[in-house]
Amino acid sequence: MTEPAEHHKRVVSLLVEAMSRGDLAAFDGLYTPRAAVKAKAWVEPFLRSFPDAAMEIVQMVCEGDTVVARLRCSGTHLGAWRGHAPSGRRFERVDEVYFFTFRDGLIDGAWGIEDNLTRFRQLGILH
Fold first, then answer.
1. What pLDDT digit, counting tens, does each position of 66-95 carry?
2. Ordered strands of the 90-103 beta sheet
3. CATH number for the 3-123 domain, one of 3.30.360.10, 3.10.450.50, 2.60.120.260, 3.40.605.10?
């Protein structure tokens, strides 16, 4: 694997570790400045709702300046989320797939899909 590909995959790994620690400050060293602001605004409410959120990497593929990561996420619903009061219930191993684009060695954008249907069912929001 090429050096840039290894670097890009390492940055995504560090991002997943930071998410699992709830360390939004780490985003500043992983994202471009513009993208860091957007990423923190997206992730912070989720971590407030699920403060013990933990991510695991299932698979990563890198092509050029894009890393695709298949992830699994778990967490306990301890704060309001999407209009739903905290339930104290837990979701486990919910699948997510994200495409991370890089510029100058940093994440410059992300697009993803998450299995929120399974997450909602596990939290008892949908039956």
1. 999 999 999 999 999 989 999 999 999 999
2. 54-63, 66-76, 90-103, 106-114
3. 3.10.450.50
